[in-house]
Known about the structure:
Layout: E1 2-7, H1 36-43, E2 53-57, H2 61-70, E3 77-81, H3 87-99, E4 106-111, H4 119-134, E5 138-143, E6 154-157, E7 169-175, H5 180-189, E8 192-202, H6 203-213, H7 218-226, E9 229-231, E10 234-236, H8 239-243, H9 250-255, E11 261-266, H10 276-282, E12 291-293, E13 296-299, E14 305-308, E15 315-318, E16 323-327, E17 332-336, H11 343-353, E18 363-366, E19 369-376, E20 380-387, E21 395-397, E22 401-409, E23 412-416, E24 419-423, E25 428-431, E26 437-440, E27 447-455, E28 464-467
Parallel strand pairs: 1-2, 1-4, 2-3, 3-10, 5-11, 12-14, 13-15, 14-16
Antiparallel strand pairs: 4-8, 5-8, 6-7, 6-8, 7-11, 9-10, 16-17, 18-19, 19-20, 20-27, 21-28, 22-25, 22-27, 23-24, 23-26
Amino acid sequence: MIVPVLLSGGSGTRLWPKSRKSYPKQFVPLVGDTTLFQSSALRLSGPGYAPPIVVTNSDFRFIVTEQLLEIGQDPEAVLIEPQGRNTAPAVLAAALWQEKIDPEALMLVAPSDHVVPDSEAFRQAVEAGADTARSGRLVTFGIKPSHPETGYGYLSLDEDPGDFAPRPLKLRGFEEKPNEARAQEMLAAGTYLWNAGIFLFSVKAMIAAFETHAPQLIGPARRAIEEGKPDLGFFRLAPEPWSELEDISIDYAVMERADNLSVVPFAAGWSDLGGWDAVWRESAQDDRGVATAGQATAIDCDSTLLRSEDDRVQLVGIGLKDIVAVAMPDAVLVADASRAQDVKLAVSALKDKGAQQATHFPKDHRPWGWFESLVIGDRFQVKRIHVHPGAALSLQSHHHRSEHWIVVEGTAKVTVDDDVKLVSENQSVYIPLGAVHRMENPGKVPMVLIEVQTGTYLGEDDIMRYEDIYSRS
């Protein structure tokens, strides 16, 4: 069996405003109906594949399990990093976890935010490298370049890949992201592949590689596992030893130093969706190269991407060429397609202004569902709250606000101090300031309510929790 390891902790700032720190690109549908995370999990599943190990952070733990549940998957483990330490500690933690189960197992490590249109071809490429990985070699996967890309690292081969049929080849070395001239040279040479950051290896071989090339990581990572604690079906790596780990990628820590590397070429299509230009290339286009999504309309446009990410927002482009325009309820991006990699500069500029749109998604996802703010005033706020079937918010109170709840879909079980009652559609309930309260969804369909808050302070940190089924402090 091959054990997939999905790395799911990135922030994806180059796809702002659709991808933000609070809800990054791997969890949103950018190409197709499923999210990138779900597509990755489905691609690394089927006969011969074990349930996945997911490495993520505390903020995303419930999003991960919710999205896996939607596609009918139950993970082997969800390892929660106390803080981001790049890919080397994440891969090592997964290997040490699997070592306790089966040290001979093969592990397939992949980012969870890539697009691979032909999943079956990818699984065939993995199978082509499996025997080589079982023999103790570290196998990586290299993508046939389609253009002189300057945003990717490259893999240098010892031989011409010929027809790019998936088979293990010897890897000469790694090359950093090139400038345009060097990228043109490598494309013309035909012996360079894009580095996809996907690896196949035996647990034993990878741990041995860390012991040889990055031994300083072994001790803290082992202690993070040994001192870690289960938490509601997750496993929290211990924060103190984890903080001692170097912030370093798996490429720098191990791969670029190892001498037992092989590469399997892959030519059936791949993208890391590293910018809106990549999304445009992966999207269906008309005969003028225009791609639209949602409530977007193009009039006399060429080579342009128009996306409305909200049904209430009509986005219209007229006479545009080589433009990216993405509209959200709270932010709009308009950029020359050649500057797609500079979207991260917009995020930095918004952070400097203190704009919450830099990092926070309009919908705030919680383990029980999500909410979005509809109207915000000086002393009031109106929210729409969506609660999953069987889910419950924490038992809580507020120091600075009172609330009115109006149920518009489903039925809510509402606790206000000692009073517990069912509130159905078109009914409302008042929560006085300081009252200990909770809402639950006892039904089998989603429950939606409108919440009107009034008070001197309406921040999300004005919550005193007394009881919480999701163990949030």
